[in-house]
Structure formats: structure tokens, C-alpha cells
Amino acid sequence: MPEKTAKIDALIPDARNANRGTERGAAALERSLRDHGAGRSILIDKHNRVIAGNKTLETAAAIGLDDVLIVRTDGRKLVAVQRTDLDLDSPEARALAYADNRVGQLDLDWDMDQIVADMTDGVDLSAYWRDDELEGVIQGVIAEAAPGTDNDIEGGAGENSEYALGGEVDRTYALYVTFQSFEDFEAGARLLGYPVTDVSRRTTLHQMDGSIKLAAWRGAMQETEDLNG
To answer: Virtual CA dihedral for 56, 61, 64, 65, nearest 10 degrees?
Structure first.
């Protein structure tokens, strides 16, 4: 497993990182790095762009951890980072174990717009969120982006409106927009970046209660003969 060393500024943060991070999480991460040093590794692609560990990279650079040990792998072997200065039975190692897990909880704040954008680009998140959780994310983005129109808008929090998207439970309010014409539907889809085409993968047309409803969701566009029931 070839290794090489590099300077930390050779690594490139992910400009589309879906984790916005939190102020408390950033403080906890800095405290952990200062008290315990680097523990878990970060993950980069073949171009030195960060796949996972953007916040760790940012904080490590800020506190002066300038040197990086890069382990090259194709993912077929598990990479284990061995800390030669630690013993699991010591208070120091036990504290690091807690810090590793707790920082991950505290420093997680999902960027819902980025999640929807990645799904639009074909990223399959169904293995990590239930369908109702993903729908809550999407409807939350719709609620933020919907312009003031004469269309009917209904919303609220139902029984399943709390979605465990991160370390803490987030409450998502689903908002459903009923469009009175197909032109309004198309305008709403364009606003969200979902082109309405026969091969659209992200905009689904639903006919419910004699009206058109927009659902930014997976699957091919469903066409109906009579769009207004």
C-alpha cells in the first residue's frame, strides 16, 4: 500500500459539501485535534479533492497541522490508522473514542439544497434515507423556493414530519403546491431546476384530486391524458 507525504494545502476541499457544519461542532473538532491529535483519516479522490473529512481538513489547516500522510488504495482493503502513542485502555484513548463519535454528531448540518442538487445529478441516497425522509428534504426545498402565486398552497407537519437526517432530529414541514395549470407546473419545476421532459428523472407529475401536484422526486415523468382531471 504505497504511501507519500504532502502539505495540507495540496488537498482540495469539496465546494459542494452537503454538510454545512455547526459552530459548536467546529469548536469540538478543534478541541479534539488540539487535545488528542489526528485520529480518523480523511478521504480524497485521485485528484486530491476531499470526498469525506472537509471539516477536519479545514480545522487541521487552521491549527497548523501542515503535513499529510497519503495512503493510496483502490478501496479493496480497509485502511487502519495506527496510533503508536496510544493504548485503548488508557483514559486518553478512551477520550479520543468519545471525541470521534461526538464531533460527528455535533458538526453535522445538512444543506438541503445540495442534497436535492446531488439527487438531480443522479446520486442515489436511498440506501441511507427512507423515502419519506427524502421526500421531507425535497418538500422543504420546495417550501423555501415557492414564489407567491395564486396557486393553492397547503402545508404542515404530519406524523412523520421529524426526520433523523443528522446527529439530532430535524423537523421538516412538507408543503404541497397545487397548480391550476400545466404552465404554472412547468414554471415551478424550472424554478427548482427540474426540467419537465419525457425523460426527466427528477420531476414527477402526479394527478391527485383533479389537480396537478409537483413532486420533485425520483422516477420517470408520469404523463396523463387529461392533466386537469
So the answer is: 50
Report, in angstroms and rounded to the nearest whole number, the Rg of the chain calculated over CA atoms.
Answer: 22
**How many other β-carbons are positioned within 10 Å of the β-carbon of residue 139?**
23
Give CA–CA dist 128/19, Å, rounded.
Answer: 15
Give residue-wise pLDDT tens across range 4-52. Answer: 999 999 999 999 999 999 999 999 999 999 999 998 899 999 999 999 9
Instruction: Please state whether the predicted TM-score (pTM) of the whole model is above 0.85.
Output: no
C-alpha cell at 75: 478501496
- d(CA 127, CA 131) in angstroms, rounded, equals 10
Q: Contact at 8 Å (CB) between 207 and 175?
A: no
Angle, CA of 111, 103 and 29, to the nearest 5°:
95
Q: Which amino acid is at 38?
A: A
The C-alpha angle with vertex 73 and arms to 47 and 111, in degrees rounded to 5, equals 55
Handedness of CA 155, 160, 162, 167 (dihedral sign): negative
